[in-house]
Give the backbone structure.
Amino acid sequence: MEQTMELTTDQFIRDFEQTFNEQQQTLLQNATPTELFLALAHTIRQYYTPMWLERNESLSARQEKIAYYFSIEFLPGRMLETNLLNLGILDTVKEGFTQLGLDFTAVKNAEHDMALGNGGLGRLAAAFMDSLATTGYAGFGNGLRYKYGLFKQRIVDGYQVELPDAWFGSLGNVWETRKDHDAVNVRFFGNVYMADAGEGKLKPVYSNAQVLRAVPYDVPQLGYKNGVVNNLRLWDVEIPEEYELNYPTIADRRRVEDITAVLYPDDSTEEGKKLRLMQEYFMTSAGLQTIVKSYLKMGLPLEKIYEKVSVHINDTHPAVAPAEFMRILIDDYGMEWDAAWNATTKVMSYTNHTILSEALEKWSTGLFSFVLPRVFQIIVEIDNRYMAQMGAQGADYARVENTRIVRNGQVHMAHLAIIGGHSVNGVAQIHTELLKEDTLRDFYALTPEKFNNKTNGIVQRRWTQIAAPVLSQTIDKWIGFEWRNDIHALRALNDVVDNPRAQNDFWEVKQLAKKRLADYIEETTGVHVSTDAIFDVQVKRLHAYKRQLLNVMHIIKLYWDIKDNPEGDFTPRVFIFGAKAAPGYHFAKSIIKVINELANLINNDPEIGDKLKVVFLENYRVSLAELIIPAANVSEQISLASKEASGTSNMKFMMTGAVTMATLDGANIEIRDEVGEENIVIFGMTKDEVYHHYETHDYNARYLYDTDPVLHRVINTFVDGTIPRCQSEGSEIFDALVTYNDEYFLLEDFQSYVAAQARVSALYRDRERWMHMSMMNIANSDKFTSDDTIRQYAEEIWHLSLPHAGRHRAA
Ligand code: AZC
């Protein structure tokens, strides 16, 4: 049901001018883009505020069940255009700006990305917020209000340099509202002992605990043209007034503020241990406390809280939730253990985002019991009861031992999330299969009914209507507007994929997007790239398993091909990289350095010319992705099979007409199933072949290096001085690939990758064939809408019903 705000351009101009005058007290013509952005954001706030109030009232009046998505990361990027699009007033506002003689693009670019996430996991959480509002489900987010988001990346002399992302500093977050009345206290440290509470009961008594105040800031999440506003709640830390004497110096206060100061810039390893654990507990405890309070306002029995509340644990970071929920129910509200446990397991569910074991958090029992003494007691009790119950059921002892929570001096957070909940899901079919047969196989054997798959999705509106407006208009032209409201209508494009005029239109669209990106490349790097070349893109976090290095090896091979035969027939390519490396991930940073030096070598060689260019775009982030992705001809999704849980950028590239160069990993497999073998380029080992190597230990990288002359020459290029200024980085790479036996099997996949790339070049030269492939990708991308993914979560895991959207209009 479509519901847009009724707003004329004139009305908008009046509202905007009034807000601007009240706020900025200068002339429109003198205003900076930032001042205009602030005034525009405040105008929009006035539009959605009544809808937000009405939404909250109607949810509580109807006693609607609510799902709370707990995540340590949310990565929405910019919100302005999304909010306008979802209110249905994007065109009106653009028109208003034109009439006022103002540059909308400059104003939109003045918004700083909200980068409270590292990569896929955080972006998915933000996508789910949009899709929950769009589908109309009552799903709220719960996270942290970091002052500094993911670091800003600069490239200096080819090296990554990290700068703080002070997104917050200058303007604050224009979208948020502080909710002082919902503040709660969170306790850390100290001693806990049990004292007599009368009636034969015990209660915990805390001494010397540190008490901190958690204050929520709510960020509205607007549904697409339906008047629905959900809530993303981000917690900030403060010192409660009654404890101020404990923090006499600024340094003392800073230590507290650190809890919400920075997002950990690492998506795969636990670090900064104590502070990270405090962050996780802080947002989890604060969130759960307020959830219980607002449930109780309905006057319903606490034992039945699962009928109105679901809590989703996004990866292991909020996995303390089942234990904290038990603590609240038992200690704060006096519930009995069994009733509390019954409620807890029905409330909690968990998503796993990776099989890399370093990302499955474990805490030493020493640290954990020091920071969270009472929660630790509860976890030990949960663990003991789990053992006893499994033992009573006659479960296999080794399995039970492998799945227990406290083991070998460590608290296993994934185990707590699984035992304390009713659902575990992976994020693509192959990933869920791997969880069942490998990573979590003992859990699967014991409780198979908990396991299910939910393949990731993307907010198609951002990647088409916002990031690719011309593409969107061209889709309108060929199949009408329906797809903008119902993405499945995109399938009508299948009828025109071989129509020469349509092909021509979509070719032109891609050329325009490439031109836009080429201008940006020239402006930011000084490198001129031709839009006649294939734009071949790999943008994602820098990680060995994602194999950016395999891409680099192929580029080196092409470099030698041209040098050997400068007059040869060659399909020009521009290789575009964007990638942040975790600051402590030395090897990843070496790869960045090598890419940049290789780029210098190639881009400045007159003999190479326009045949080959390599660009590394610094500070990859959501807003840059919006520029890059629609301009890609080739989408590099080349992780070692089994290692990429799903991937989501692969879906964005597909939807905007890139052809995927893919291993059979993550969601690539499901992309293949949608577009058909002929419209994707597959190469490399399968997951079973990878696992075969693991089982037989038969992999020998040095043998491949010694016996394949092409590979030999490519690998030597890292160390023989061809690429200047990266001696030590080059030899690290050599060692990883040869001396240490190539953990991610790049050498084995190399020839198949090279052959697949040659296929791409040939296909691209056949424009009809290429446009067929490209358009088949767009036409069949609807499966990957996060709207459908979230419907599955809502129905199958959270058991939500669909509240009717109200009759919302602007004030
Ligand atoms: C990512 C996965 O690596 C990626 O494959 C997946 O698409 C994405 O989550 C969303 O599910 N994981 C992370 O970003 N971080 C961690 C700790 O897994």
Summary: Residues 118-121, 124, 267-268, 315, 353-354, 359, 427, 456, 644-648, 666 surround AZC (CB under 6 Å). Confidence is low (pLDDT under 50) at residues 805-811. The CA atoms of residues 259 and 275 lie 7 Å apart. The chain is about 45% helix and 15% strand.
